[in-house]
User: Which sequence fits this backbone?
């Protein structure tokens, strides 16, 4: 281990933190993944809305596509034309963002027109001003992840044996899975049901009864991005950043070939520490906020 | 939570058997056509034919996803798309390596197809009998999906490598990592159409046009990859054809959206509720 590789690991951790945050906000702007169920249900239970409905599979496959696209384009430009890495990565992320835009628009059009009988309209102004925001976040995510894969394959002292697009695919799946499990709860549980008592969970009776009106005017997906930036996005960023940083730290400090057992033991140690930390957080939250009171009709929040 | 998707089979204007025939014949003939033209003329500009052939397979796969998932599998749509490509990639590797071992490289697509069909059918039987999905079209649909996934991967792999030989595909597609983009773009091409159009008023023609549109995007990606493996001319040709296909079918998709939506408005307040 030397200072240079440690610096690279730190940079990867920082990039991963940004990627995680932007990934979660990207999915929230478009209502992807599990909060999407409620957006989809809303019109079906008689609440047509003006919220983006970006159903591009789950977050893991979708982000795997953006990341793999960015890495594939960057790898091609670097290998075939010897372009500077930064330029190639930027170009790759731009192609990924364009792909993202097409997928997002086609999902918004498709999902809404498949709800004709519930009178869910297709609003073109939403497509015009929300899609660029989604694409911009996808650009940041795919740029960061493609850069992480570039560092792993070309810059770390021990080059990763896998090709760059495959590493980007795996990190894309990882960031999508983390965003889906960490950040989405903030959007799906808190923002979509903001008018219910805090922490009440999602009663089946409330399915589709999402908040459709904002502080002023009608709620749109840009408002949701603003809200999710406060907690869901950064929490996802921390989750993904720690995953990338800790995982690469142990294989940089300990040589993966000669000290493999130490690296594995360190990984197990991290898992044990995190399990106990999670247990502590859960217990302290239960202690502070106590059991949720029985449901006695709607209570003013 | 399962959303949308009316249960009991989706109404369709195009018969699934016909789509299967077009899908299989189109993809196999296309892959062979591209391979033979490339070999006979000693060039690689016809590699794009493989990517076009993959579109036939994708349409068949998207239709099969639609048939299976119309039985109320809402959140399972992405999973089934990934399953299709997972089955497909095993079949492609098996088919190509067996053909190479036998000494008839050109037999690869046929062996792949047969293996994929049998493999998919067995997975379908397992899903229905062991996991107890109890979806009537599961066996048939999974065989279709497996064959569609295999042919899509084979078509795009050929489009990237320009050759059907096992070692060329391993060198140009697997070792470069381009299999990642083929896998995920192919998977989304098969799963995205139905997923994006999920809902009680989903229409088959709109879903299938979406499939061709997404395949156009995948073709743009394989075109970029082909720039490295086959040179600028073959890669750019593929990229431009992919873009043209995407553009044409995106416009057609938008037309169908305007036909099917309750209203396409520039802006407006909430629509009146219909229950």
Assistant:
């Amino acid at each position: 281990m030397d200072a240079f590789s440690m610096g690279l690991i730190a940079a990867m951790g920082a990039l991963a933190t940004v990627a995680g945050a932007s990934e979660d906000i990207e999915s929230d702007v478009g209502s992807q993944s599990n909060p999407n169920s409620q957006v989809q249900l809303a019109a079906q239970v008689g609440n047509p809305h003006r919220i983006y409905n970006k159903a591009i599979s789950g977050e893991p496959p979708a982000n795997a596509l953006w990341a793999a696209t960015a890495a594939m384009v960057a790898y091609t430009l670097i290998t075939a034309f010897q372009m500077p890495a930064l330029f190639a990565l930027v170009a790759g992320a731009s192609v990924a963002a364009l792909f993202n835009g097409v997928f997002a628009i086609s999902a918004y059009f498709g999902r809404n027109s498949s709800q004709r009988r519930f009178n869910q309209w297709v609003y073109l102004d939403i497509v015009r001003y929300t899609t660029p925001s989604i694409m911009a976040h996808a650009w940041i995510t795919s740029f960061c992840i493609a850069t992480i894969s570039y560092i792993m394959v070309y810059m770390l002292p021990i080059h990763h044996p896998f090709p760059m697009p495959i590493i980007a695919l795996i990190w894309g799946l990882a960031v999508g899975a983390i965003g889906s499990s960490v950040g989405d709860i903030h959007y799906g549980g808190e923002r979509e049901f903001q008018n219910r008592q805090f922490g009440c969970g999602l009663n089946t009776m409330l399915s589709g009864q999402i908040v459709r009106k904002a502080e002023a005017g009608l709620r749109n997906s840009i408002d949701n991005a603003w809200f999710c930036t406060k907690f869901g996005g950064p929490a996802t960023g921390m989750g993904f950043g720690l995953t990338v940083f800790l995982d690469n730290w142990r294989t940089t400090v300990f040589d993966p070939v000669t000290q493999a057992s130490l690296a594995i033991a360190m990984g197990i140690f991290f898992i044990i520490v995190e399990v106990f930390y999670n247990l502590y957080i859960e217990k302290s939250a239960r202690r502070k906020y106590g059991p949720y009171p029985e449901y006695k009709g709607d209570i003013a929040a | 939570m399962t959303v949308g998707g009316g249960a009991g089979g989706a109404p369709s204007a195009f018969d699934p058997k016909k789509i299967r025939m077009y899908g299989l014949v189109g993809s196999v003939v296309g892959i062979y056509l591209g391979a033979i033209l490339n070999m006979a003329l000693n060039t690689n500009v016809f590699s794009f034919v493989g990517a076009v052939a993959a579109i036939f397979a994708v349409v068949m796969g998207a239709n099969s996803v639609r048939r299976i998932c119309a039985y109320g599998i809402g959140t399972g749509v992405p999973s089934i798309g990934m399953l299709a490509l997972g089955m497909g990639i095993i079949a492609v590797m098996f088919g190509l390596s067996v053909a190479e071992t036998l000494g008839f490289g050109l037999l690869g697509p046929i062996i792949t197809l047969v293996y994929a069909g049998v493999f998919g059918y067995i997975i379908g039987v397992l899903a229905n009998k062991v996991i107890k999905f109890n979806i009537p079209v599961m066996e048939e649909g999974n065989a279709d999906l497996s064959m569609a996934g295999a042919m899509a991967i084979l078509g795009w792999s050929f489009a990237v490598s320009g050759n059907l030989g096992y070692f060329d595909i391993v060198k140009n597609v697997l070792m470069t990592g381009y299999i990642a983009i083929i896998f995920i773009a192919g998977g989304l091409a098969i799963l995205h159409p139905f997923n994006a159009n999920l809902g009680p008023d989903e229409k088959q023609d709109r879903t299938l046009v979406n499939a061709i549109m997404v395949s156009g995007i995948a073709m743009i990606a394989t075109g970029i990859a082909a720039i490295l493996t086959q040179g600028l001319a073959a890669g750019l040709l593929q990229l431009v054809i992919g873009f043209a296909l995407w553009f044409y079918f995106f416009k057609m998709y938008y037309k169908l959206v305007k036909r099917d939506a309750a209203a396409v408005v520039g802006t407006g307040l909430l629509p009146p509720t219909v229950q």
